[in-house]
Amino acid sequence: MSAIGRSDRLEEVRAALSAVGGGAPATWDRVCVACARVPPVTGAGIILSAGGEIRTSLGKSDPVEGVIEEAQFTYGEGPCVDAARHSAPVHEPDLAGSGLIRWPIFAARAVEAGVAAVFALPLQVGATYLGAMNFYRDRPGPLSHQQITDVLAIAELVAHGVIGLQAAAPPGALAPALADVPFRAQVHQATGMISAQLDVGMAEALVRLRGVAYTEDRPIDEVAGRVLTGTLRFDDQPD
Prior knowledge:
Elements: H1 3-20, H2 27-37, E1 43-50, E2 53-60, H3 63-75, H4 79-86, E3 90-92, H5 99-102, H6 104-112, E4 117-125, E5 128-137, H7 145-167, H8 176-179, H9 185-198, H10 202-216, H11 220-229
Antiparallel strand pairs: 1-2, 1-5, 3-4, 4-5
């Protein structure tokens, strides 16, 4: 990619971030599409986290990126999980090989969806940690030196963009561009109920919830919904 082409693509990311504040539908997805064009890679996504745990997807470039993000949220493992927890970049150029050792459940699902390589970078501004930026490719191989420079630049742009949007919001309120993001509230509510049923910590309760989702091969939101309606309890199940 020429220097001019790269500069133009970074400007597309900046423009897409600027448009987020306008409240146009699927704006964050458009940010991710622009981000994927810079290195370039097959797709990209933005994940928000708190306390090292993935909370929700802020945007995704395509359906395969959606599979990547859903698998990480459901199973609690994957590149963005590690990037958010350890505040460090994660590079896996051969997901079908060593990725199956690092993240056996996530990697199997992602490879099945057509993912060959994944790369994640923490989103942070100073001591403020927001989540992680994910990039994937449909063929294996490491990022080049220029591509690494590009993804670092993108992660910095996105992190500052999110912080800038929230800084303009009234105290105690989410910025409009973030307020409509689904924060998977029912999963966190269900985790609290499981914690009370089993008298265990929230982390252990979330592990139990994820275990059912994996065993039954169902989305974790669906399993959480059953907990909230009382059709699934954990205190009447064998250990």
